Amino acid sequence: MGIDFNTKELLGRWLLRLDMQKPNITLKYNIKAPIGEVSQTEFVYQNASAQSHTYEFSTSHPDLVHIPQNSVALQPGDRASVPIVLKAMDKPKQAQLLIFVLESESGKHEALLFTISYVL
User: Fold this and answer.
1) C-alpha angle 95/96/101, rounded to 5°?
2) What is the pTM of this model?
3) To the nearest whole number, what is the mean pLDDT of the chain?
4) For 35-78, where are the E strands, in sequence order?
């Protein structure tokens, strides 16, 4: 909404509608990571469709994980290893995070659930 500060008149307003649903979790991963160290692992993603697609990756917890290669182009049936960097934790804990996968051309999306156990 905008207001003219001189006349205190309302200039316009916006209507915002959000549709939300639980993420479509298609795969689950359990990972152990050492305490006090940055560690790297990877997951394999496959293009299961009959067409070439570019996939974009993002995370629900950028404070815990970094995805250095945040997109990959795959031919039908091709697979790619996607590296992820787990940030260092200073004490034992377990964390869950999602990695979201967006098919750029169609807008289809899914989520991968990662359970990370930080251990000595």
Assistant:
1) 145
2) 0.81
3) 91
4) 39-46, 53-59, 65-66, 71-74
Domain ranges of the chain: 23-119
* DSSP-assigned letters across all residues of 95-109: EEEEEEEEETTT--E
* pLDDT tens-digit map of 69-118: 999 999 999 999 999 999 999 999 999 999 999 998 888 899 999 999 99
Question: Strand 79-86 to strand 109-119: parallel, antiparallel, or no bridges (unpaired)?
Answer: unpaired
d(Cα 74, Cα 77) in Å, to the nearest integer? 8
Tokens (6 digits) for 118: 């930080």
Given the structure tokens 């290669």, which residue do they identify?
69
Q: What CATH fold (topology level) applies to the domain 23-119?
A: Immunoglobulin-like (2.60.40)
